TrEMBL record:
Protein name: UDP-N-acetylmuramate:L-alanyl-gamma-D-glutamyl-meso-diaminopimelate ligase
Keyword field contains Ribonucleoprotein: no
Organism ancestry: Bacteria, Pseudomonadati, Pseudomonadota, Gammaproteobacteria, Enterobacterales
Ranges where the Mur ligase N-terminal catalytic domain occurs: 3-84
Organism, as annotated: Salmonella enterica I
Keywords tagged on the record: Ligase
Organism domain of life: Bacteria
Length: 262
């Protein structure tokens, strides 16, 4: 959708094409092809984005390599053509990425910033899962899964965030990571590329993140939790009302409004 918004003609293929994603893409003027017959590469495209589910032996992959058609991973394309000049707010972690990225996007939208975003689902407040936006700010759900068969780094190392939210960290994706330390290594690669005047926001009570951050951090940090800079103190047993505290001082009182939530 982002490439289409940039004015490119876009087609895409998958083993199975079905709603709701097929409907969403077709509304954006993107042609969908079911299957991987190499004939879809004729006429030859200017660039092929290869997803991380594709492997050697796939007819389209083999045709791309044989014909020397330019190709790259999706995360690399995002970096080169969308994120390079943006203030990237990345949301990473084992759980809650989609929800947190959606909330961050809506907060910026409500403040009038009209941010760009890439979220792993269609948020209830928007009709699409990705858009270019009209401001420097770009929110991205930053996944630790690998990029492609030719780039086994985590996707998020391509995103170069200036603001990084780390929700939590647990062992996951046992198909590509041997153990927790392997995941922590990838997360620390992400920490390493946040600028010195950038900011990393993370929960102080997550031992796995604490171990990761102890490997080195060169950016400003904001900690949330009982011993963090930011604290939430509930006022009711059902947590429908609470106070927000910053550095030991009450900032504001909050109430949960009616509605569906995760």
């Amino acid at each position: 959708m982002l490439a289409r918004s940039l004015g490119h003609e876009v087609t895409g293929s998958d083993a199975n094409v079905y709603p709701p994603m097929s409907t969403l893409l077709e509304k954006q003027g993107i042609d969908l092809i079911q299957g991987y017959d190499a004939s879809q590469l004729d006429p030859q495209p200017d660039l092929v984005i290869i997803g991380n589910a594709m492997t050697r032996g796939n007819p389209c992959v083999e045709a791309v390599l044989e014909k020397n058609i330019p190709f790259m991973s999706g995360p690399q394309w995002l970096h080169d053509f969308v994120l390079r000049d943006r203030w990237v707010l990345a949301v990473a972690g084992t759980h809650g990425k989609t929800t947190t990225a959606g909330m961050a996007t809506w907060i910026l939208e409500a403040c009038g910033y009209k941010p760009g975003f890439v979220i792993g689902g269609v948020p209830g407040n928007f009709e699409v899962s990705a858009r270019l936006g009209e401001s420097p700010f770009f929110v991205i759900e930053a996944d630790e899964y690998d990029c492609a068969f030719f780039d086994k780094r985590s996707k998020f190392v391509h995103y170069c965030p200036r603001t990084l939210i780390l929700n939590n960290l647990e062992f996951d994706h046992a198909d590509i990571f041997d153990d927790l330390k392997a995941i922590q290594k990838q997360f620390h690669h992400l920490v390493r590329i946040v600028p010195g005047q950038g900011r990393i926001i993370w929960p102080e009570n997550d031992i796995n993140l604490k171990q990761t951050m102890a490997l080195g951090c060169w950016s400003e940090q904001e900690l949330v939790g009982e011993q963090g800079h930011w604290q939430a103190k509930k006022l009711t047993t059902d947590a429908s009302e609470w106070e927000v505290w910053l550095d030991g001082e009450k900032s504001r009182r909050c109430e949960m409004g009616p509605g569906r939530r995760t």
